[in-house]
Amino acid sequence: MIIGNGGKDIYLIKSDSLGNEIWNKTYGGTADDTASSVNVTSDGNLIITGMTESFGSEGKEVWLFKTDTDGNVLWEHTFGGSGDDVANSVQQTADGGYILAGYTDSFGAGGKDTWIIKTSPFLPQTAELRQNYPNPFNPSTEISYSLKTEGLVMLSVFNTKGELVRTLANEKKTAGNHSVNFNGEGLNSGIYFYKLSVDGKAVQSRKMMMLK
């Protein structure tokens, strides 16, 4: 546990074979978010599960997310209902999906019941723009997105006046997950918007905040 964006945040440390730190990352929102299990996937990346009170619908929800070898989030999903739902363990299955074990207070006979979740490999189904992390940030943040098929990607940042302040990508990208770093050095604190377009068609835009 570490105090990051607010409340309890997940704290992930990568070390070498002698235990010397290579990098560390925090993950979470404004409420409590904790991890119970982390494993290396077949492609060498990391799969992490636990619970989140920052994302999802309400209460505690199962939080499953995958990162690359540098700890950058590739995708994330939440599972749960109106009660508290928590995952304690995750493993990759032979088909490339994942199996999670934990408990649910939302489903089952009543009280806390054992909950097993089997997922698909979570290949991107559509072009998707994800929330930047960290947010708020100072002065840099990671913006990630996924593509169903290869396409010409335009990723741009605008201020609240609608003025273009930065073009982060304007090139053809392959299908899959991508991320780019936005450094706000030289820009004023405040709200900014980032917009993803693929092959000339707007896909999605999101809001981020820089606090100096």
Automatic annotation (TrEMBL):
Name used for this protein in its record: Bulb-type lectin domain-containing protein
InterPro entries reported in the protein's UniProt record: Bulb-type_lectin_dom, Quinoprotein_ADH-like_sf, Secre_tail
SUPFAM superfamilies listed in its UniProt record: Quinoprotein alcohol dehydrogenase-like
Domain Bulb-type lectin, residue spans: 1-113
PANTHER family on file: ENDOGLUCANASE, LIPOPROTEIN
Gene3D superfamilies on file: 2.60.40.4070
Top-rank lineage group of the source organism: Bacteria
One Pfam family hit: Por_Secre_tail
